[in-house]
Here is the input.
Amino acid sequence: MKATTIRQICRSQQLPSLAHIKQKFQPFMLRRGLMQLGAQRRLRSPVSVITSRQPMGEAKPHEVRRIILKAHSHLDMLERGLVPAGDEETHDYLCHVVGISQIRVCDAGMQNKATGGIDAANHLLLTLNAAAQGLLRARERHAKGGKWGLDGPAIDPLRASLEIYEEVLNASSAQQMEEAQGVRLRYLQMERAKRK
Here is the structure.
């Protein structure tokens, strides 16, 4: 699937200009800031509002590269069997990458129903679900044998999921990524509560 297609799925709408935000929202933001002064809340500037809504690939390209390099190094370590037996960070980080990608792809697909976003999202979710199943098998293998590693069917979907994650990062805003992390955290908390 082309990168532009994934970007089109993830982007919801065009952003207003900085001048427009200053003109329309600054008086309101100043009034709101004065009302919240007693509560000592920080007033967000128009620039920080725009940055939080810009795709991360445009607003923070160095951060995106750092995150992707970290994900690729974790996958490489897991693929080669170089993860120490007691280290769960590598597996958990890759689970996070796949989980966040699943949430953002679902969200973007639902936002773009009219343009065929659901079909494209379903195609991506098949790959992400296969990657999640591969990570689950790696966790089970570690629980039984004490070694981390991937089986053959897990490697290709995990590599593809990192490409999807990179496109999701590039096309999603920081605010959208934070919301996806919140959804993932609530899901993990519900799963822990079920086990107790």
Remarks:
- Residues 3-195 form one domain.
- The chain has nine helices and no strands.
- The chain has a mean pLDDT of 78.
- The chain has one domain: 3-195.
